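Working notes for the structural subgroup meeting. M.R. asked for a predicted model of this chain before we commit to crystallization trials. I am recording the input and output together here so anyone reviewing the notebook later can reproduce the run.

Input as submitted:
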Amino acid sequence: MAYNTMVDTTFNTDADTIPIDSIKWYRHFYASAPNDTISFDTTLVFKNFQAHNYQGRDLFGNMPFANMGQGLQPLVYKDKFEYVPNMGFPNRHLMYQSVDDVKYYSVIRPSSHFMYKTGMEEGQVVDAFYTINFMPNLNFTIHYYGIRSRGKYQRSLVEGDRYNFSMNYKGKTYGFLTHYTSQNLLSQENGGLVNLQNFVSGDEDFLDRTRMLVNLRSSTSTIGGKHAALHQYVNLTQNKYVRSRLSTSTKYEKKHVSFFEEGETPINTAFFGSDVFDPSTNDRVNLTEFDQSATLTNHLIDSLISIEVGYNYNYRLHGNPDQPWGFEKPDTTTFDTLAFERYYRTQRIHGRVKVQLPFDLSVESDGSYNLKYHDNPEVYTLGGKLTHRDYGSIRARYSEQQAPLSLQRFRSNYIDYQRTDTTALAYQKTLDLGLHFKYTDNHQLDFSFKRIDDFTYLDAQSRTQQYKNSLFILSADFANRLGWYIPGSIPFEGRDAQLRLDSRVVVQYLPKVRVPLYLPLVTLRESIYYDARHWAGHFQIGFTLRYFTRYFARNYDPLLADFTFQNTARLGNYPTIDFFFNMKVGKLRGFIKWENITANLFETNIFSYNYWAAIGYPYTDANIRVGVDWYFLD
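Returned structure, recorded in token form:
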């Protein structure tokens, strides 16, 4: 069980973290399904400010669109292994909570949390929960998330809500975690600006962004769904030499993604293609998934050796039988491969071994193997890591993965978006070699070498392609935090005021040219701020600089909610600066942020209106945002 024990300074005034044994008396924490436990964090550490957004996580390595929840352009390449192909439509899922994202709580007294942040032109995002332990080992939680944000441009409304109910019981022999979630999210799609020069010129007539013409005037996308899960465990043996646990997990999810025109007749054939099957577009894709797994975990010789073996069965129904152009056009002769709906059945075995070695070293290896089952071929992944507790790790991993389903079998009402090639795509194969150095938690450096074969992507016409040569990516990720005590400052609780610098720099290099993926050579974020504690509270005030070098940023396709290849226009080389003021009084944290203040410096000719997330999709204009984050632990 991995712990991250950030806690309230009410209990710990000398540091931002507490040792693991302090969990005995401070038990306000939550856990996810993988069973990692994290305490409620009410401190004013800078990472909390970076995660104060609609996703609740640090968005470094992404360039957001003008409205929150509208889109994120990836600047740093990341691959996430999934043993079954995901649904695709990645930017539809920005606010969608998956089964594994649900948190389970345990508290010593009834507790609640409230997070609020203003939207762009109007609106807000709210995230709140109430949790109570009816017994020391039985918890119930209700969680609500809502968002409504209207951007400054035409057709830029994002709204939706989510309800979550969870319960968990933790006993010495038996325990369970279960939840039910329902969510619906909507986003208007404008297709980007028609005349980019109106934005770049800084013409006063177009500083009112609603005057700018957009490509789509009646398009809307939605994503919604319901899911439930039951995770159980039984402790078979519990002694100093052997601790065995049998765990089972049952997950069920049913969700849909849609893209439709609000008008009676399509007006976007010039944007999406030459023709349509039906004059009223309503592309809808359904996914029903059932996943069952069983895992046996053994800790031997006081956890010096850990062994885990497991089995997964996954069943998916993908498509929409009510839509004649739906997911596949009918073909009675080959109905198994060209059908309205497609069944996917996958069986997988997986394992993991971890051994503690002398000198604070540990070595672990894990792997999985998809059995050949029905029309699913054999696929496997294998990885290993050597770790030193204080200084870092060496890792290696090889994985094979299917392309997202939206790139494999999507059938749109727009004829140009038909996947007429029924040849199965080759699995994308990735070899990842890495070296991670950790001097302290404040100074870390990570090197990575990736080789990708059969890289799957969307070309400039939004058609699925595979790069048949090897794609190489070399990267270095440097994170650093420095602090300097300010002479003459008045200490409070034994702490002087500090001038602090938080740095994050990623360098990415692709040795080959003419490849289907381009990345900025340098992506960085530098935050310098004044940090001080006072009898009235704790506050931080400073600036954040974001920058990435020019590169061929991918275009955005709103129908697929994905990015497509282009190599004609470079974006980047434009610094954006934010001003922020953070404060903490008791357990209340407040955040004030003036975003992209460089947009107001155009008249001095230092900067220009050239801040793009993708071609036609600007980054946010100068905007003031206010937010609060409040825990009630009494």
